[in-house]
Design goal:
The structure holds 2 protein chains of 2 kinds. Chain A is an alpha/beta fold. Chain A contains 12 helices and 13 strands. Chain A has an 8-stranded mixed β-sheet with strand order 2-1-3-4-8-7-13-9, sandwiched between helices. A 3-stranded antiparallel β-sheet of chain A has the order 10-12-11. Chain A has a two-stranded antiparallel sheet with strand order 5-6. In chain A, helix 1 packs across helix 7 and helix 4 packs across helix 5. By secondary structure, chain B is α/β, with parallel strands linked by helices. The chains are: A alpha/beta, B alpha/beta.
């Protein structure tokens, strides 16, 4: 490994890397874009979690959000794919190399419109991807058209109001059996970072829908996803702490104030009760809360639903221990005897006739 | 009457889903086991049950495998098509009718055998459903008796298929014997067609192209397969799943050295192939017309970002849904440059089941060597019909995994640039995610990029990358399968064809030769063209390109390859959706020749 060139004073994480080792290229998004804050959150969370950059692959589709994987984890491989199709790329990468931690970044246009089919099937297969939706309700890169997550009544800069029902990607993910569904706000790093770290520890699709205001096309009065509007409507479910398996913290919460979730790798998520108690392990509770929040025009943020014991796609396929991409020729090319036996069967006719049908 | 030995076609008209497949396959195999060359073609509707379907067995002592326009023996099991099917039969032909089908009097110069099949089934089983399925074995028995197919071979063929189900075997055998006995007792006409033992099939296998391609992929070490079901490509993947489950899953632990994903559509299927190829797996998909149309955007991504992947296109009749269960060669143009912008893809064109096997393996090596999606263009005729072949050879060559830098290689390099043409062949080096050395990390994108994989809109960098991709593609001319040349000394006519047209062209050359017309024949086996293609065109005063599409797609490519000879390159086209027959090729060539003779050109 190339030794990171950093000033000696920089603090290092458990694998000896500095925060700067998780940086990427300079952003080219608008100053003040919510996406830049999420990029910062990913860098910080990856640093704190001690991710090995070479074990991470960054994936995205097309749009402002999908540009961001270039701006974090510059020492990881990245794949900026085509519009709405990051889930299929992620699925292929995962099946080829199940040891990689996949961080997928998408937007509301990329996921809720052109890519909703692939998103649904990614979740349905439970492909292990930390799937971050940078959700601003508009198409930024094509200058401000509504996306399918725009709220009813939210206006464009021109004053035109959206009248179609928004798609709630979190509710959809829960309905599809996703084992990790969260919503957050790019302006709330305190909530976003532990959510990201918990998502890194989840074996399966982890969906994090991050409301991320578009400073250029949706930060005006009348937009329900402006900074001011989201600060107003943000309704956190709980305070979140994530304690990774390698940190031996003695957490001491008063009984009845905190819910605890144990992750398969030994990490813990602590969900500290705020105004009301919320059971993040109950999908029915999550649906009711999301429905009520929509009615009250609130944005419910936090860990909406978690089931750490879902079966991930590599388990479903019962893949060999070695990643498929690392198998040697003699592991993937059966010996000559196998071909000889098959040829014998086709000589004797002891195989089923070729399939017909239309 | 003079018997016709080992040279006829049997046409069996049944109803889709009526269970005739086993019967037809037993007939085919029994004749094959007698050492006589055979081919079996299934003509079926886009339907699961109820619509008409036909199975044609061509018996040819000369080893011809193409469809014949005329049939000599007809088995009538479908009342719906009976009148039309019978009308197509000429004098002297043999017509075997299930007598529950009521027909007007048939011409007396045909040999008509009415068989009380329903009645014959009564003593064999009381199960009504079984009677309906097994009744097909009655015509097997009658045909065996009339044609002289060895009873022992029929029994062997049945045993090979049903040996593990003794009850079913006994039932089917009883029906065969019943048909034989009935024919023996009731029919003694002096009809024409007979089989006689030969020694032309010893050691050979009988297999369809899709299964052959699946075997090729298995022995090429495929690890990731994603697909969306579509006729006529599904049987390729289903065969492959069967082989993978049997030979690549640990029987003790249940762990697999492969992953098969049934995708949500063809866009996702090729997306998974590219994701897996990027991450270092040997990945493939198989599809047909509508699916290949959906793959356009991602194919262009694979071209520009330089990611390996193998895509089988088992062509069917388009445009749009077209005729889903009929055959064509009309995707060549589209696949060769499938995406927007300037794109070019290597396309392999197997012309036999043996090449379906061989090219499947070659496609993976090429895709990884050239770092690009590679297409294998087969078709329904080749993919879903049964052909004789020499057994396939075990691949002796090691897998070519292309230019991949691992940690050891990276450690020796001062720097790594993903799209730098280090070797001058247009092929850069790549690294795989998971590589420890930070030098190896790069960002893959479908947007403009420079040699170091950095985003750029620089006009110079764009042109450099595009020109390098062109050089890389041109280099593929020497790497793809070379054309096959069959020369007749002094021939002025050059025939060119590809894929499943081969059988018909070979037979047509003999037909033309019998009329005193010598032809040379070049079978193109890949795009980009080897330089031998241009040389062949230049050598022959008149060139006829035989292909199964309306617009002469290969013809156009050949004209572009040898523009100064474009006027002398003409098409012989066949696009009925039915497999190509030799007579169509011969007639097409003769029509061009007559036209020229009328203009005063000497032959």
């Amino acid at each position: 490994m190339t030794a990171p060139i950093t000033p000696p004073a920089s603090p290092v994480n458990r694998i000896g890397l500095t925060r700067a080792d998780y940086d990427g290229a300079k952003t080219t998004l608008c100053p003040g874009c919510g996406h830049n804050a999420i990029t910062g959150g990913i860098i910080q969370a990856a640093y704190e979690a001690g991710l090995e950059p070479h074990q991470v692959a960054k994936l995205s589709g097309i749009g402002c959000s999908s540009k961001t994987p270039a701006y974090f984890l510059g020492h990881s491989h990245g794949f900026n794919s085509v519009h709405g199709r990051m889930p299929s790329i992620a699925t292929g990468v995962h099946v080829a190399n199940k040891n990689l931690l996949l961080i997928g970044v998408s937007g509301d246009g990329d996921t809720a419109s052109i890519g909703i089919g692939q998103f649904i099937h990614l979740v349905r297969r439970n492909v292990p991807v930390v799937y971050i939706i940078e959700n601003n309700g508009v198409y930024g890169l094509t200058k401000g058209q509504f996306s399918a997550t725009a709220d009813i009544g939210s206006t464009q800069k021109s004053g035109k109001a959206n009248s179609l029902m928004p798609i709630d990607l979190c509710a959809l993910a829960i309905e599809l059996g996703c084992g990790f569904v969260a919503r957050s706000f790019s302006g709330d790093q305190k909530q976003l970072r532990p959510l990201l770290k918990a998502a890194f520890a989840h074996r399966g699709t982890a969906v994090i829908d991050v409301i991320s205001p578009c400073v250029t096309f949706a930060d005006h009065e009348g937009s329900t996803k402006s900074y001011a509007a989201v600060k107003q409507s943000d309704n956190p479910l709980h305070e979140i702490d994530f304690v990774p398996y390698f940190e031996n913290l003695n957490v001491d919460y008063a009984p009845g104030t905190t819910r605890e979730v144990l992750m398969p790798d030994g990490s813990h998520i602590y969900l500290k009760k705020l105004a009301a108690d919320y059971d993040a392990t109950n999908a029915g509770v999550a649906f009711d809360a999301l429905r009520a929040a929509r009615h009250e025009q609130k944005v419910l943020t936090g860990l909406l639903y978690i089931d750490p014991r879902t079966r991930s796609f590599d388990e479903e396929l019962v893949l060999a221990d070695t990643p498929l991409s690392g198998l040697s020729q003699d592991q993937v090319r059966p010996p000559k005897q196998v071909l000889d036996d098959i040829m014998h069967a086709y000589r004797e006719g002891s195989v089923a006739a070729a399939a017909g049908g239309g | 009457m003079n018997p016709v030995i080992n040279d006829f076609s049997i046409h069996i008209a049944t109803v889709n889903g009526s269970g005739s497949q086993t019967a037809n396959s037993v007939l085919l195999r029994a004749i094959f086991q007698m050492g006589i060359p055979v081919t079996g073609k299934n003509l079926f509707p886009s339907n699961i049950a109820g619509l008409p379907t036909w199975f044609t067995i061509r018996v040819s002592k000369d080893g011809y495998i193409a469809r014949r326009r005329e049939n000599d023996i007809l088995v009538v099991m479908n009342p719906e098509t009976a009148v039309e099917d019978i009308a197509a039969m000429g004098p002297g032909s043999m017509i075997l009718v299930n007598d529950s089908i009521k027909l007007a009097d048939l011409p007396t110069d045909r040999f008509v055998y009415r068989v009380p099949m329903t009645k014959l089934m009564e003593p064999i089983t009381t199960d009504v459903k079984l009677r309906r399925l097994v009744v097909n074995m009655i015509y097997v028995g009658v045909l065996a008796e009339r044609l002289g197919i060895d009873e022992a071979e029929v029994q062997a063929a049945l045993t090979a298929q049903l040996g593990r189900k003794p009850k079913a075997l006994a039932l089917n055998l009883a029906a065969v014997h019943s048909g034989m006995a009935y024919a023996r007792e009731h029919f003694d006409q002096d009809d024409h067609y007979r089989v006689a033992r030969m020694n032309a099939t010893a050691g050979k296998i009988l297999i369809d192209g899709n299964t052959a391609a699946a075997l090729g992929a298995l022995f090429a070490g495929v690890t990731v397969v994603s697909w969306y079901p579509i006729t006529p490509s599904s049987s390729l993947i289903e065969a492959l799943i069967g082989f993978l489950e049997q030979h690549r899953r640990d029987p003790v632990t249940g762990k697999a050295t492969f992953g098969v994903v049934q995708a949500e559509d063809e866009i996702a299927a090729i997306g998974m192939v590219l994701g897996a190829g990027w991450a270092g797996a040997r990945a493939m998909t198989a599809t047909s017309g509508p699916g290949i149309s959906l793959m356009g955007e991602f194919a262009g991504y694979g071209y520009y970002a330089e990611i390996p992947g193998v895509i089988f296109d088992i062509q069917r009749v388009g445009p749009s849904t077209g005729l889903p269960t009929r055959t064509a060669q009309a995707d060549l143009d589209f696949v060769a440059n499938i995406s927007h912008g300037d794109t070019q893809f290597p396309v392999l064109l197997p012309g036999s089941v043996g090449e379906c096997y061989e090219f499947a393996g070659a496609a993976f090596d090429l895709a990884e060597r050239l770092q690009t999606p590679v297409f294998v263009l087969s078709d329904l005729d080749l993919g879903m019909n049964n052909y004789m072949s020499e057994p396939f050879d075990y691949p002796e060559k090691a897998l070519d995994r292309g230019k991949v830098l691992d940690d050891e290689a990276l450690a020796k390099l001062p720097k790594f640039e993903r799209y730098r043409d280090v070797d001058g062949d247009g092929i850069p080096y790549r690294t795989l995610p998971g590589t420890k050395d930070w030098k190896g990390a790069y960002f893959t994108r479908g947007s403009g990029h420079d040699e170091a994989a950095r985003y750029t809109e620089s006009p110079e960098a764009y042109v450099r990358v595009l020109d390098r991709l062109k050089r890389k593609y041109d280099g593929a001319r020497e790497l793809v399968p070379q054309p096959i040349l069959l020369e007749s000394p002094g021939a002025e006519i050059g025939l060119i064809a590809f894929g499943s047209s081969d059988g018909a062209v070979l037979e047509a050359r003999d037909q033309l030769k019998a009329q005193g017309i010598a032809t040379s024949y070049l079978r193109v086996r890949a795009l980009p063209f080897h330089e031998g293609v241009a040389a062949f065109v230049r050598k022959h005063p008149r060139v006829y390109v035989v292909e199964q599409n309306r617009d002469g797609q290969l013809t156009d490519k050949i004209r572009l390859e040898v523009p100064e000879r474009a006027a002398e390159v003409k098409s012989v086209l066949h696009y009925l959706g039915l497999p190509l027959d030799a007579r169509s090729v011969t007639d097409g060539v003769l029509a061009h020749e007559k036209h020229l003779l009328a203009q005063g050109v000497t032959r």
